[in-house]
């Protein structure tokens, strides 16, 4: 008979595994919607309004009775929402200029940023293996960024935006871990309010930068061909995914969490190659492998060493 703690551990593993698969596929789905010829080619921020708006409605409806509106909950959620908004905005803009596989691997760099953010915050210096891992990651990213995509001449810009998005998402993950570990706010409220406040930020951004285009392009969106993509990305990749992530961060070790989440990038790359949206090149294989290796060196090995000590 499994103990309650063991059940929570298994549930967290299952939820995070499903989330990782959805996120991997999400790179490809988002790329088809905001890339050239996509339904939201001219309205990337509006696509995030739809994504986060639907997720907010579902989350509020499901967890309505558990929601709190005290100042501590709202404040910590608003800070996390700023990071969540920034990370996704940069990631989606990156997808407009680079491929799904590249965006996925560059986004994976968030795992390498987390130890250094923690170092600046908690004054805990990274291990030697972490520094070596960063060096491996830099080499991998340089190889990746040097890929000659004939159909994406602005790939370098897209990769840079994706990398900046990864940095902002690293702050969001670090902030989430801080809030949960210090019991500043429970995982349900932190998840729901972060998504809700991110929606508000995307609405404002869309109105400011896409105001004139909304009138022109919204009527042209072919909803019949993209509704299922929106459903997967919004309900699966946002509502379910962030409930899963915060739940997992509460019940799994950092090494377990990283080991599962690192699969997000290769899954996205594999799907993109299989669907013919990415070419399988040596840069894709070598650069991606180096980035995955770096994640192990930066996050998983130090976590195992700390646990052993």
Determine Rg (CA atoms, Å).
19 Å
Briefly note the structural class of the backbone: mainly alpha
Q: Work out the strand percent.
A: under 5%
Average pLDDT, rounded to a whole number, is 83
Number of helical stretches of at least 4 residues: 12
The biggest beta sheet is recorded as: none
Compute the number of strand runs.
Answer: 0
Helix content: over 70%
Q: What can you see in these coordinates?
A:
Helix content is 81%, strand content 0%. It is mainly α and 309 residues long. It has one domain (4-107, 153-279). α2 (44-63) crosses α9.
List the helices and strands and how they pair.
Blueprint: H1 4-34, H2 44-63, H3 71-97, H4 100-107, H5 110-122, H6 128-145, H7 155-181, H8 187-217, H9 223-251, H10 254-261, H11 264-274, H12 282-308
How would you describe this structure in keywords?
309 residues; mainly alpha; 12 helices
Give me a quick take on this structure.
By secondary structure, the protein is mainly alpha-helical. The protein has 12 helices and no strands. Helices cover 81% and strands 0% of the residues.
